[in-house]
Design brief:
Strand 29 and strand 30 form a beta hairpin. The protein has 801 residues and is α+β, with helices and mostly antiparallel strands. The strands form ten sheets. It has a six-stranded mixed sheet with strand order 4-11-3-10-8-9, with helices on both faces. Strands 2-12-1-26-25 form a five-stranded mixed sheet, with no helix packed on it. The chain has a four-stranded antiparallel sheet with strand order 15-20-22-21, covered by helices on one side.
């Protein structure tokens, strides 16, 4: 994924999984006996090594790794599925899209994707069923919108998706392209579109690590049949991402790109993905909100997206209406042509235990490596496609933009909150919270002793008299503050405050926001909703925010003001290096613009720059401004600051990097040339969790019994009984579609009947009397309040004369 924003990305990530009560974990399916009762993880060491995806099955057979965290290719997965020596963990962990460059061409030239009708026509040129059936051998699900067919919000857009009329129809696609190109002044000469006297050429960037190579070949063939000259460039991750996401769209280094998106955790009520994939304000649409670049703009999507993101609705229905409208607009714009959700296959040795299969991420979640172990061994070997690439950047502000760094980082860092791996609802991970809300229509008074950071005067200001907020959340950081950072220094409220201040400085300090433009622009809409902060004691912080949600845990997750990713002294040294010394940058685009390194804490060169800054702080006896001064007292004394600086310097001298965090493992060794990283258990007695605290096991299953129908005549009543098996309170939504016109004739909730799990669907005589003879599609979508996924079945209904 493209990482553009410290605050927004931290919010998105921290709303992606959660720790339930211990009683839930003790009842997890396939619960295991912990190997010991020491603080920290089950294993003593985790070794990350790179293995080529084509050789991975043989390396597993040879015992060179315990689990492979990159999805096998389809043919290899099918061979291993029935091999009793291995477990194969499958999950819909990747979505694929075709990104189109909509920038206007220079005078005298034509970019066909600057024309919305051409982008829409591409929807009909991609054969999603072929991709599912032939390329993925059935291990994928076709997509029309950004919503995967198994996501809970698929119910929200059910009729929009199924009634879109989008399917493989190359003749229609070419016809639409022809009309749009002719209106733009292009002519078709010998089967090739020309503008002026020059043929229209397209640059297609194709990824090579997985099935996207074959998909790109398919796309190239269809685009050539549509009359375009296509130059395809096959590139691995780093080179492809650099070309697409780090260049001005108007430079036309690319026109089409085969994107792949890793899914981190289930989300019951999406707010992030729909913005990320459709709304320009979040910095993930062409132009990337980077200064000097041409920008794709869509004010209506931005306005709707911010409303959804910031909880500016008064009910579930209003939230769903916003979501539906954004989805419709996204399809109209067709900036991304959604292809499939790939069912990823992660193989593991049979003797590896403690694996949790997240509903969407599979074993690639924060849970697995905390519990994974091989009985009788103290280490786990994790294989991945890469451990390091040229785009792998470890900094918590503008880095961690690839799965290769993130998959390691999740075991080094404890987020405040994360989504439950099955329900998709945010829950406490390491911070406890209490929510009070007057929303959606009333307000709370913000106390007069609450404060807010002023980036212009660089100090905490008292909130203005009469300030009001929709919600209040009290965060208790005791489970952080009882323990220490990996370098031995106690985690404290100072770390929380510095993280908050850093966000405001990036967004509102004029000089800093001119350097890291995208970070500042995308952070402001979020920070604008915060009304004040109040220190209750040395462990609790009260946060006032204009945000409401019908599910209160979403309020807490939104209001969580600090990710507590790294100690304040590391953040302060990085800030000084980026904004005062101007010798590094947080983001890739700022690094390119100012010709400085993209700050990377695992690289010796960059870590030494940070260490040099820490030494300067130490020699000068400096503490960052007024950051820690609230009221008359400072949370950080000079003595404590000096101790912190020295501890960080000592860490670098011992380990050769400055990745210091607070999770169950610490980064012992990182060797980019060798494609190797070693994690070691953090066994501090004060660490709050032990083996057995993190195991969830396999998710619950849900299925619809096969529904059989018989031919019916117009005017004849249809009554169907449907049985759904699954956990919790079950529901069934049905949709009746005319496949000829793609008109949704009916969409309703099925009537539940006893016993639990049985439903009745009734089409009365008046409804069927309007049906013409032919086949109709009846779609059934089952869901539960206990799991964040949808199970679907399609039934053909034959209407006879």
């Amino acid at each position: 994924m493209r990482n553009t924003n410290i605050v927004i990305i931290a919010l998105i990530f921290t709303m992606m999984a959660a720790v339930p009560a211990h009683s839930e974990l003790s009842n997890a399916p396939g619960a295991i006996l912990p190997p010991h009762n020491y603080p920290g993880p089950a294993a003593e060491r985790v070794l990350f090594r790179a293995f080529d995806v084509d050789r991975a099955p043989r390396d597993l057979e040879a015992g060179r790794m315990d689990i492979y965290m990159f999805s096998l290719k389809t043919a290899a997965a099918q061979r291993m599925r029935h091999d009793v020596r291995f477990n194969l963990f499958e999950a819909p962990a990747t979505t694929l899209s075709l990104l189109l460059n909509p920038a206007p061409a220079p005078p005298g030239e034509l970019n066909p994707f600057s024309i919305r009708e051409v982008r829409q026509a591409v929807q009909y040129l991609v054969d999603r069923e072929f991709i599912v059936r032939d390329i993925y051998q059935g291990m994928a699900l076709p997509m029309v919108s950004h919503v995967s067919p198994q996501e809970f919000d698929f119910l929200t857009v059910y009729d929009i998706d199924r009634g879109s009329g989008i399917s493989y129809d190359p003749e229609l696609g070419r016809e639409l392209i022809a009309g749009a190109m002719e209106r733009a002044g292009a002519t078709l000469i010998d089967g090739i579109w020309h503008y002026g006297k020059e043929p229209v050429r397209l640059k297609l960037i194709a990824r090579v690590e997985d099935e996207r190579r074959e998909i790109a070949n398919l796309v190239r063939t269809e685009m050539e049949k549509a009359g375009f000259m296509v130059a395809i460039s096959y590139r691995p991750f780093a080179a492809a991402v650099l070309t697409v996401y780090s260049t001005d769209p108007k430079a036309f280094e690319w026109h089409l790109y085969t994107e792949g998106w890793g899914r981190a955790a289930p989300q019951r009520y999406d707010f992030a993905t729909i913005n990320q994939m459709n709304a320009p304000w979040l910095g993930n649409m062409p132009g990337w909100q980077e200064v000097g670049f041409w920008q794709y703009q869509h004010p209506e999507l931005d306005e709707l997206g911010k409303r959804l993101f910031r909880g500016e609705f008064t009910s579930l229905k209003e939230r769903s209406d916003i979501y539906r409208l954004m989805s419709k607009l996204g399809l109209e714009e067709s900036m991304r042509i959604w292809l499939v959700t790939a069912i990823n296959s992660f193989p593991a040795q049979k003797n590896l235990v403690g694996v949790t299969r997240d509903l969407v991420a599979g074993p690639r979640s924060p849970w697995t490596l905390r519990e994974a172990h091989v009985p009788g061994r103290n280490e786990v070997i994790v294989g991945h496609l890469w451990v390091w690439t040229e785009r792998t950047t470890w900094n918590p502000v503008g880095g961690f933009g690839d799965v290769y760094s993130v998959d390691i980082w999740r075991s080094l860092h404890d987020s405040p909150m994360w989504n439950h791996p099955f329900t998709g609802i945010p829950r406490s991970f390491r911070v406890d919270f209490q929510v009070e809300t007057a929303g959606p229509k009333e307000k709370l008074i913000v106390p007069s002793d609450a404060v807010i950071w002023n980036a212009h005067t660089n100090k905490w200001d008292a909130v203005e008299a009469g300030t009001k907020a929709t919600s209040k959340v009290i965060f208790d950081y005791s489970r952080y503050f009882q323990s220490s950072w990996h370098h031995g220094e106690a985690i404290s409220m100072a770390d929380v405050l510095y993280s908050i201040v850093q966000s405001y400085e990036l967004a509102y300090d004029a000089d800093k926001s001119r350097i890291e433009v995208a970070l500042g622009v995308t952070t402001r809409p979020y920070l604008e909703t915060f009304r004040g902060y109040r220190l209750l004691d040395d462990k609790r912080l009260e946060v006032y925010v204009d945000f409401w949600h019908f599910e209160e845990s979403y309020i807490a997750s939104y209001a969580s003001p600090a990710s507590l990713s790294m100690p304040w002294e590391i953040l302060a040294a990085m800030d000084d290096l980026v904004f005062s010394q101007r010798r590094a940058a947080y983001s890739d685009t700022a690094a390119a613009r100012f010709n400085v390194p993209w700050l990377n804490l695992v690289m010796d060169r960059d870590a030494r720059l940070v260490r040099r800054t820490l030494r300067q702080f130490l020699s000068e006896g400096s503490i960052p401004g007024e950051v820690f001064q609230i009221g008359n007292d400072s949370l950080v004394s000079l003595e404590l600051a000096m101790k912190r600086y020295q501890a960080a310097i000592n860490w670098f001298d011992k380990y050769g990097h400055l990745v210091i965090s607070n999770g169950p493992f610490f980064l012992f060794s990182y060797d980019p040339p060798a494609q190797f990283a070693e994690l070691r258990a953090f066994r501090d007695d004060t660490y709050p969790y032990r083996p057995g605290d993190w195991f969830f096991g396999e998710p619950p299953t849900m299925r619809i019994e096969r529904v059989e129908t018989h031919p019916v005549s117009p005017g004849e009543k249809i009554s169907l009984n449907v049985v759904v098996h699954g956990p919790g309170t079950l529901g069934l939504r049905y949709l009746f579609l005319d496949p000829v016109s793609d008109e949704v004739l009916k969409i309703e909730e099925a009537e539940p009947v006893l016993p639990e799990g049985k439903f009745t669907i009734l089409f009365d005589e008046e409804f069927t009397s309007k049906l013409k003879p032919g086949f109709y599609h009846l779609y059934l979508a089952a869901y539960s309040d206990s799991v964040a996924f949808v199970v679907e079945q399609k039934v053909d209904v034959d209407v006879v004369p």
